[in-house]
Each structure stands twice: as structure tokens, then as C-alpha cells.
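Re: that backbone. C-alpha cells:
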């Protein structure tokens, strides 16, 4: 009886894990979206960075500021590319993704921003929560939350 119960539990856990994973084609699409964002950042092109967002997207910046619409995301990023982050690069890597519905995916990505900011080298890490929406068979970012990863036991820097 105990063995049978363990097998049933293992089957349920494995089934839930398989169901949560996105199809390979959708995973590839998400990785391409992240690559487009990375290319936009590294080429200092705000329009390219924001090109895979929906027109009416929500974007929560790493400092908590809330942006709305692809146009505002593009303009805001062009502003930081022309100033504070002009000597930085970005790396983005997909951590996980799962379907909420057939047309909505929730994903997490790991980010690393590195380079000189006002003459000082910085190497910061963040985790992004990304809500993707399938529109006309293409995935776009509908909502994006960017959160800096703090070292354990370390308070956020004072401003």
C-alpha cells in the first residue's frame, strides 16, 4: 500500500511538472524576445529594446517606477542609454516559463547589468517576472517586473 501511494504521488508530481513546461517553440520565442531586449540594450537602441512589448504594456523598473506603453518604455530606455547606462551591457537568460492559459505565459529571467556607471564599474544582478501574451500567433511582453537581487543580509544601497 505504501509503495502504491508513493508511485501515485510521484506520477502526480511528474505530470504537474510536465504540464507546467512550455512547448519548445514557445520557449524559443521567449529566448528570442530576451535576445532582442539584450541586443537593444547593448546597442543602446531604446526602440529595439522595447520592440517586443505590447503597445499597452506595463513595465515596473528596477527602482519601482511604473511605466505604461511601449512608447514610454522605448523613450525611457533611450534616455538611460544616452546617459547613466551608456557604458553598460546586459545579459538575459530564461530561468523558467509556464502557461497560465494557451495565450498567456508567465516567465522568469535572470539579468546581469555590468559596466561603468559614472566612471565606476558595477556588476548587478536582477530577476525579471515577465507576462507574455500571444497575439496573432506571436508572443509579446504584456507586463514586466524587474527586481534587483540583494546579497543576503545586505540592505539596499542608500541614495
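Recovered sequence:
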Amino acid at each position: 500500500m505504501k509503495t502504491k501511494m508513493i508511485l501515485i504521488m510521484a506520477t502526480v508530481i511528474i505530470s504537474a511538472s510536465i504540464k507546467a513546461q512550455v512547448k519548445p517553440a514557445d520557449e524559443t520565442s521567449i529566448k528570442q524576445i530576451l535576445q532582442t531586449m539584450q541586443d537593444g540594450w547593448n546597442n543602446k537602441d531604446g526602440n529595439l529594446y522595447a520592440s517586443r512589448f505590447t503597445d499597452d504594456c506595463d513595465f515596473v523598473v528596477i527602482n519601482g517606477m511604473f511605466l505604461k506603453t511601449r512608447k514610454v518604455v522605448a523613450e525611457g530606455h533611450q534616455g538611460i542609454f544616452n546617459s547613466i547606462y551608456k557604458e553598460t551591457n546586459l545579459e538575459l537568460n530564461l530561468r523558467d516559463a509556464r502557461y497560465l492559459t494557451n495565450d498567456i505565459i508567465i516567465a522568469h529571467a535572470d539579468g546581469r547589468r555590468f559596466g561603468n556607471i559614472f566612471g565606476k564599474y558595477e556588476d548587478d544582478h536582477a530577476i525579471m517576472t515577465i507576462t507574455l501574451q500571444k497575439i496573432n500567433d506571436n508572443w509579446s511582453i504584456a507586463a514586466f517586473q524587474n527586481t534587483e537581487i540583494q546579497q543576503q543580509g545586505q540592505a539596499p544601497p542608500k541614495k
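Residues 5-19 have pLDDT under 50 and may be disordered. Helices lie at 2-20, 24-42, 46-50, 70-81.
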